[in-house]
Specification:
alpha+beta; 5 helices; 26% helix
Length: 257
Amino acid sequence: MSNDLKEHISAALKKGVRLDGRKLDEFRPITIETGTVATAEGSAHLRCGETEIIAGIKLAVGTPYPDRPDSGTLMVNAELRPISNPEFEIGPPSIESIEVSRVIDRTIRESGTIDEKKLCITPGEQVWMVNVDVVPLNTDGNLIDLGCLASVAALKNTKLPRLEDGVVNYKELTQEGLPLSEEPIAVTVVKIGENFLVDPTQGEFDVADARLTVGSLADGTLCALQKGGDASLTPEDIDRMVDIALATAKKLRKLLE
């Protein structure tokens, strides 16, 4: 991004204005459709401004980890491909792709969203393995928050396939959903100069001095934190960013209803 554009964004923010006309604490309009991928056990299609994401859930029966013989597993994978942004490259996962995957995974896992013990079929032998794929179709910033929101919507939409004698029949889904107990929300607050804003576009994300992603539950309990950017954050900055994230999460949570 050119220095001229960075200066333009910073100058506008000093006046409390964003380039797209939003308030600093305002998200772009979001729409979520579920059950959009026929080959997945659960899916969600999310649009937020120019960012568009598909989240799909695939279930498999596998062997549990030796140290957790009575618990299923969860894995989140984000695929950032050039089709969604020309800056993304084909090949091994980029640092950004790994961060998006890990922060969404941590937010869902540490929140206790899924009761993994209820995914056990036969202790020490068979458990359900939950795989979450996050695929941006078009990218204009805020992939962690929107990817997490799409993932939770997809998890809520998931139905277990028929299991007969240890063999999965993917052509027949049951009416049994995943054992979900929480709906975590991730909100990233970016700091540009002395300004704090949510739902950054790609341009705002690129010029941010620092950012803090806050994962939280409905009662305000924090379940994940991730700091990014080169600039440091003071304790006062962090307190303010957490407060902004929690207030924003309450609004986003209504979308999952």
